Protein backbone atom coordinates (compact mmCIF):
# COMPACT_ATOMS: atom_id res chain seq x y z
CA UNK A 1 0.00 0.00 0.00
CA UNK A 2 1.26 3.46 -0.83
CA UNK A 3 0.59 6.80 0.85
CA UNK A 4 -1.71 7.62 -2.08
CA UNK A 5 -3.66 4.36 -1.57
CA UNK A 6 -4.04 5.15 2.12
CA UNK A 7 -5.18 8.72 1.43
CA UNK A 8 -7.71 7.47 -1.14
CA UNK A 9 -9.16 4.97 1.33
CA UNK A 10 -9.19 7.41 4.23
CA UNK A 11 -10.81 10.16 2.16
CA UNK A 12 -14.02 8.08 2.10
CA UNK A 13 -14.10 7.88 5.93
CA UNK A 14 -15.59 10.15 8.58
CA UNK A 15 -12.85 12.71 9.34
CA UNK A 16 -13.68 12.60 13.07
CA UNK A 17 -13.50 8.79 13.37
CA UNK A 18 -10.64 7.50 15.57
CA UNK A 19 -8.02 5.45 13.73
CA UNK A 20 -6.77 2.09 15.03
CA UNK A 21 -4.09 -0.16 13.63
CA UNK A 22 -5.09 -3.84 13.46
CA UNK A 23 -2.20 -6.09 14.48
CA UNK A 24 -1.50 -9.84 14.59
CA UNK A 25 -4.03 -12.03 12.78
CA UNK A 26 -3.48 -14.87 15.29
CA UNK A 27 -4.37 -12.69 18.31
CA UNK A 28 -6.19 -9.76 16.68
CA UNK A 29 -5.85 -6.52 18.59
CA UNK A 30 -6.35 -2.86 17.71
CA UNK A 31 -3.78 -0.23 18.67
CA UNK A 32 -4.03 3.55 18.89
CA UNK A 33 -1.94 5.40 16.33
CA UNK A 34 0.76 7.75 17.49
CA UNK A 35 3.41 9.55 15.49
CA UNK A 36 4.45 9.30 11.88
CA UNK A 37 7.94 9.55 10.44
CA UNK A 38 9.36 9.47 6.96
CA UNK A 39 12.67 7.89 6.02
CA UNK A 40 14.26 5.87 3.22
CA UNK A 41 14.67 2.11 2.98
CA UNK A 42 17.93 0.23 2.26
CA UNK A 43 17.51 1.00 -1.47
CA UNK A 44 16.98 4.73 -0.94
CA UNK A 45 13.21 4.58 -1.61
CA UNK A 46 11.02 6.88 0.51
CA UNK A 47 9.11 5.14 3.32
CA UNK A 48 6.47 6.29 5.81
CA UNK A 49 6.31 4.76 9.29
CA UNK A 50 3.26 5.03 11.51
CA UNK A 51 3.94 4.41 15.19
CA UNK A 52 1.78 3.11 17.99
CA UNK A 53 0.64 5.68 20.53
CA UNK A 54 2.94 6.21 23.51
CA UNK A 55 -0.12 5.39 25.65
CA UNK A 56 0.10 1.89 24.12
CA UNK A 57 -3.48 0.86 24.76
CA UNK A 58 -4.67 -2.29 23.02
CA UNK A 59 -8.27 -3.16 22.31
CA UNK A 60 -9.78 -6.46 21.15
CA UNK A 61 -10.42 -6.29 17.43
CA UNK A 62 -14.15 -6.65 16.65
CA UNK A 63 -14.77 -10.12 15.15
CA UNK A 64 -16.45 -8.59 12.08
CA UNK A 65 -13.23 -6.66 11.34
CA UNK A 66 -11.08 -9.79 11.66
CA UNK A 67 -13.46 -11.57 9.26
CA UNK A 68 -13.35 -8.63 6.79
CA UNK A 69 -9.52 -8.71 6.91
CA UNK A 70 -9.73 -12.49 6.23
CA UNK A 71 -7.85 -13.17 9.48
CA UNK A 72 -10.70 -15.32 10.79
CA UNK A 73 -13.66 -17.15 9.36
CA UNK A 74 -17.15 -16.08 10.27
CA UNK A 75 -18.26 -17.82 13.44
CA UNK A 76 -21.99 -17.37 13.35
CA UNK A 77 -23.91 -19.75 15.55
CA UNK A 78 -25.76 -22.46 13.63
CA UNK A 79 -29.51 -22.01 13.38
CA UNK A 80 -31.40 -23.51 16.30
CA UNK A 81 -34.09 -26.08 15.75
CA UNK A 82 -37.19 -26.08 17.85
CA UNK A 83 -37.17 -28.89 20.37
CA UNK A 84 -40.10 -31.19 20.76
CA UNK A 85 -41.81 -30.93 24.10
CA UNK A 86 -41.49 -33.95 26.32
CA UNK A 87 -44.58 -35.17 28.13
CA UNK A 88 -44.74 -37.66 30.93
CA UNK A 89 -46.19 -40.97 29.84
CA UNK A 90 -48.42 -43.10 32.08
CA UNK A 91 -48.02 -40.74 34.99
CA UNK A 92 -44.17 -41.03 35.09
Detailed description of the structure:
This protein has 92 residues and is of the alpha+beta class. It has a domain at 17-69. Helices cover 16% and strands 28% of the residues. The protein is built from 2 helices and 4 strands. The protein has helices at 3-11, 63-68, and strands spanning 20-23, 29-40, 46-52, 58-60. Strands 1, 2, 3 and 4 form a 4-stranded antiparallel sheet that branches. The radius of gyration is 23 Å and the shape is elongated. The model has no long low-confidence stretch (mean pLDDT 84). Residues 71-92 are annotated as: Disordered.
Radius of gyration: 23 Å
Q: Count the strands?
A: 4
Report the mean per-residue pLDDT as an integer: 84
Low-confidence stretches: none
- Computed structural class: alpha+beta
End-to-end CA span: 70 Å
Q: Which percent band covers the strand fraction?
A: 25-35%
- What pattern of helices and strands is seen along the backbone? HEEEEH
Helicity, in percent?
10-25%
Sheet bearing the most strands, described? 4 strands, antiparallel
Number of helices: 2
Shape assignment: elongated
Brief characterization of the structure:
Residues 71-92 are annotated as: Disordered. The chain contains two helices and four strands, in the order αββββα.
Question: Features of this protein?
Answer:
92 residues, 4-stranded antiparallel sheet, alpha+beta, single chain
Question: What is the secondary structure topology, with strand pairs?
Answer:
Blueprint: H1 3-11, E1 20-23, E2 29-40, E3 46-52, E4 58-60, H2 63-68
Antiparallel strand pairs: 1-2, 2-3, 2-4
Amino acid sequence: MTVGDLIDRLSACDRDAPVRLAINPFFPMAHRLGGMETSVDEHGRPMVYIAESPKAEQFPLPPAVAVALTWQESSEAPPRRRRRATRPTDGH
